[in-house]
Each structure stands twice: as C-alpha cells, then as structure tokens.
C-alpha cells in the first residue's frame, strides 16, 4: 500500500475521486499475492498493480465504474481448459479475486 500512497495523496489533493482494487484471494499460480493493490484516479491514472496483462485493463474499467456509481464490486479472473480462450483470464492458470471499492473522504 505504501507504494501507491503518494499518488493517492496527489489525486486527493486535486479533489479527484479514487478507487482501490485489492487482490483478496488467489488459487493456483497468479502474478500477484493477496493484498496487492491498484489505485485508479477518476482521470484514469494508475498506481500499483493487481495482475498485469489482460486482467489489468478490465480492473481499471471496473474501477472507473465504481468511481462513478459508488457500488463496490468483486471480480474473479481465471481460466480453465473448459472455458473459452477468448475470456479474460490469467495465462498462468490460476484464479484471483479482486475487490474494487471507491475511496470516500
């Protein structure tokens, strides 16, 4: 969290709304551990990471929606052999759950 605090403070000082995405659980192989965070400003600026790759843009899009509407969301990303390869998932084969919430001051 300390790595994203300077950016959060900068955005807060500018009066921007902010969402935080947090990896809350993982199964199997995943690029980031539980507790990893991504901060998103209402202008789309980013600090931190919850996964990288094709998952991160989906989390950013959800974060922007959460900023706008204020309703937190729980996301799940993973892929199994039975799932369509076009679905957003983790190339490493694991599953992560990411909780996205708006910071209200």
Automatic annotation (TrEMBL):
<dbReference type="InterPro" id="IPR052698">
    <property type="entry name" value="MoCofactor_Util/Proc"/>
</dbReference>
<dbReference type="Pfam" id="PF02625">
    <property type="entry name" value="XdhC_CoxI"/>
</dbReference>
<dbReference type="InterPro" id="IPR003777">
    <property type="entry name" value="XdhC_CoxI"/>
</dbReference>
<protein>
    <recommendedName>
        <fullName>XdhC- CoxI domain-containing protein</fullName>
    </recommendedName>
</protein>
<feature type="domain" description="XdhC- CoxI">
    <location>
        <begin position="11"/>
        <end position="78"/>
    </location>
</feature>
